[in-house]
Structures are given as C-alpha cells and as structure tokens.
Amino acid sequence: MEHAARVTSSVIFVRDIDRSVHFYRDVFACEVTIQKPEAALLLAPGGFQIYLIGRSARTPHPLGGIGPQYLIWAVDSAEDLQELERTLRRDGRVSQTFTSGGVTFVEGRDPDGIRILMAHPGPDELPRSVIGAPLYV
User: How large a percentage of the chain has pLDDT more than 90?
Assistant: First the structure.
C-alpha cells in the first residue's frame, strides 16, 4: 500500500546555535519560530522546517557517510542565485559554481562547514534530467 508523504523538515547538528540561527536567517530568510540555548526551529520560505540542535565543538560531521548529506535550496531567479553567491562569497563561504542539466548550482558552507547548495531553476520549474557529478562528492 502506498502512502503519500512529503519531506517537511531537516535536523542539523551545529556547534553554535546563535551563529547558525543568524546564518540561516540572514542568508536564506528563515524565520526563527522557537529558540532555546540548546536548539532552534527555523521555518524556511515555503514552509520547510529546519531544526538546529547544538552539539559539542568537537563533534565530527563526516561527509560521505550513510544518511542525509546536505540541503539543496532553490531560488526564484538567476538574479537571486547571483545575490546569494555574492553574500556567501563575501563571507568566504562559496566553494564552487557549476551547471548540470540546465540547472546552475552554487555550493557553499554554513558556519560549521556543512555543505549547502543553492539552485536555479528549482525542480518545480525544470524537472531534473541528470544527477550532476558534483553532487556525488
């Protein structure tokens, strides 16, 4: 029996709650709905929830392990993508920009070095026809 389910939330372990709240609020226009010293709940435009959970500064984040790896954000226009790239570049957080299957991606890092990707057009505008190699690394 199939059930209709949709992804609504993500949990991200971070080293510093306040620093991460500021980053996701300022860069991605997330609304802070709950904030405590050890955790925060953010609401991204469109309704996606991001739970930020504080962990020790020594807690590792092994990229390439089994499980979710990073978030991919879609923006409404090429200009919005360029603006995000400028913002991240200004803060030294952009690592590369690439195009795959007609979609342009900007790759950056959040304050804890967690990989984030921004894309235009979004999958609702241009259904994906390929899985770009940079997504594998």
Answer: 66
